[in-house]
Design goal:
Layout lengths: L1 E5 L5 E5 L11 E9 L2 H7 L16 E8 L11 E4 L9 H4 L25 E4 L2 H4 E3 L6 H5 L4 H11 L8 E5 L3 H10 L6 E5 L3 H10 L3 E3 L1 H10 L8 E6 L4 H10 E9 L11 H4 L5 E3 L8 H9 L9 E6 L3 H8 L2 H4 L3 E5 L2
Helix pairs in contact: 5-6
Length: 347
């Protein structure tokens, strides 16, 4: 089969690799019908994730069709159309029993495209298939379901749920890339009074408006607005959600929230951010971080099937699987291409 492999910092290759086969009774082999790229894949290519070995097949998001299962698999079978979750879960360890699948200590967690071969390929071996694959309703398209492999549950769990977004809140989402837009869409489920998106790029600010933001500002404009108060009674936002992964955007979030407010960090950081405790200690802030657990994926699938959740305009570019290299070039240069999510489909 063909797959996209990591060849060291700055190097990737679409080439022939051996077909995957079950190595554990709980494995399934899935034919990849649709896949996408995550910002984390770019971090790997930049050399920020040293655990990724040279030759690893990248990717942790896919929709596909089960073609083979190990003898221990009970809930999916050959022919089933499934969502491949970005998180694998053994289902037995203490973390999995608490539905903290991202922290699985039984061989799961974020392993696809990280510690084991991933989804940017024609076929993928999926460990712990019973807990890590989700059968898809017939009415959900591959493209719509693909957004639930990672960015929708990530934005919902690590951003909206950790940030305790509630009715009437003023919510600031810093970063209007794919995860930021998914955060806006899922924050709306909790009826906040106002959602403010912040991004440098005008095109992404416009995308935030289409996703449901009430206003979209540049970082300078939101700082000026904060001087007059973003929320009720001239105070700051109730919740600020960081969806970029840069020191300056994290620090901006801490400046935008009111005393007693919440900062939920979603972005993947490749370098240190300063925590200004000399200013923050007195403000009663709650700061949360997290890796997605995907415990919300069944709920989000139900809402998508019922028409209560839309993946909207998240996918901006579409390619065949064998155009993976072109897709990476587009995704890695959003200022030039306007890319949000790119999707690859079996042709």
């Amino acid at each position: 089969m063909k797959a996209l492999t990591y060849r060291g910092p700055g190097r990737r290759l679409w080439a022939e690799v051996p077909d995957p086969a079950p190595t554990d009774p709980e494995d399934a082999i899935v034919r990849v019908d649709a896949a996408t790229i995550c910002g984390t894949d770019l971090h790997i290519l930049h050399g920020d994730v040293p655990e990724v070995a040279e030759g690893r097949i990248l990717g942790h998001e896919a929709v596909g069709t089960v073609v083979e299962t190990g003898p221990g698999v009970r809930t999916v079978a050959a022919g089933d159309r499934v969502l491949v979750s970005c998180i694998s879960a053994c289902g037995r360890c203490a973390s999995c029993r608490e539905a903290a699948y991202g922290q699985c200590t039984g061989g799961g967690g974020w392993i696809l495209g990280h510690l084991v071969d991933g989804t940017q390929a024609e076929f993928v071996r999926t460990p712990f298939a019973d807990n890590s694959l989700h059968r898809l309703p017939a009415g959900i398209t591959d493209e719509a379901a693909l957004m639930l492999a990672d960015i929708l549950p990530t934005s919902f769990e690590v951003g909206v749920r950790n940030g305790r977004v509630g009715p009437g809140d003023t919510v600031v989402v810093v970063g209007a890339g794919p995860v930021g837009l998914a955060t806006i869409a899922t924050a709306r489920l909790y009826s906040p009074a106002r959602i403010i998106a912040v991004d440098l790029a005008e095109s992404r600010r416009k995308a935030a408006g289409r996703a449901g933001a009430d206003s979209a500002l540049s970082p300078d404009d939101v700082e000026r607005a904060a001087a007059d108060g973003l929320g009720r009674d001239g105070r700051g936002a109730d919740v600020a959600i960081e969806a970029v992964g840069l020191p300056e955007t994290f620090e901006l979030c801490t400046r935008l929230v009111r005393p007693g407010g919440r900062v939920a960090n979603v972005g993947v950081h490749g370098r240190s951010a300063t925590l200004h405790l000399e200013d923050l200690w007195i403000r009663n802030l709650t700061i949360t971080t997290g890796l997605v657990d995907t415990s919300s994926t069944p709920l989000l699938l139900d809402m998508l099937a019922a028409g209560r959740l839309s993946t909207g305009d998240l996918v901006t570019h579409r390619f065949g699987l064998d155009e993976m290299q072109d897709g990476y070039d587009v995704f890695a240069d959003p200022a030039r291409t306007g890319a949000l999510k790119v999707a690859f489909f079996r042709t």
